[in-house]
Amino acid sequence: MRTDASLCILRARRDPKKLETSAKKFKLFLLLVLFIQSRTSICKSNLLIMKQRVNFYEKGFKAIRPLFNLGAYLSKSPLEQSLLDLVNFRVSQINGCAYCLDMHSKDLRAHGETEQRLYMMDAWHESPLYSDRERAALAWAEAVTKLKKNNVPDDVYEQALAEFSEEELVDLTMAVNGINSWNRLNVAFRTPAGDYVPGQHAALQTN
Fold first, then answer.
1. Cα(173)–Cα(143) distance, rounded to whole angstroms?
2. pLDDT for 75-103, tens place per residue?
3. What share of the chain is helix, strand, coil (3-state, %, to 5)?
4. Which H or E element spans position 81?
5. Do residues 97 and 181 make contact, with C-beta atoms less than 8 angstroms apart?
6. Residue 160 CA to chain centroid, in angstroms?
7. What is the pLDDT of residues 109-154, one digit of tens each?
8. Which of 1, 10, 77, 207 would give a disulfide with 171, using CB separation of 3.0 to 4.6 Å?
């Protein structure tokens, strides 16, 4: 007795076009299976990435206290807090730090930042929404973070000096160093993101 499958095979053999169509469908089916498998493995990988390695706030607070002290100093510097938050957000974008992006986006919104400016931050070079002072700070922050060819370009430096005093530029550079340190700590130890509440670290900032 012939099964339905065997009948299909016999019919396909008699008709080359049907055989070609069946082969194409089978290839598409295999590609779909491979795609689903790849997405499943990516999801599993992401779950592993989100598992915290070390709570460095608990295990290394003495080591990171100077970073909180730096934050306390910068909060009293001539640099605007809104500007520092923008810099922190942009550097965190560059470094791909989920925890810091969550934190600084919430801080920015709490201080009145618009959604539009947050959404356009990754393309601030082409956006008219940022002031000259902000653009100079963002350019400086990017150059100091990336250090392309082990250098911060002269034109970026001149642009920064046109908007900031030398003292302010030192403070801005320390702010960039600080957020880079936080980014690397959070990325390295996979700090879970999403639960930050604006101002929750304020009590830890002491002189």
1. 10
2. 999 999 999 999 999 999 999 999 999 99
3. 75, 0, 25
4. helix 81-95
5. no
6. 24
7. 999 999 999 999 999 999 999 999 999 999 999 999 999 999 999 9
8. 77
Superfamily name with CATH number, domain 56-204: AhpD-like (1.20.1290.10)
How far, rounded to the nearest angstrom, does the alpha carbon of residue 96 sit from its chain's CA centroid? 3
Give 148's DSSP letter: G
Contact status, residue 137 vs residue 91, Cβ threshold 8 Å: no
Task: Determine contact, residues 188/84, Cβ cutoff 8 Å.
Answer: no
Cα 73 to chain centroid distance, Å, stands at 25
- Residue-by-residue DSSP string for 193-207: -S---TTTTGGG---
Under 8 Å between Cβ of 182 and 100: yes
Least confident of 29-43, 94-108, 179-193: 29-43
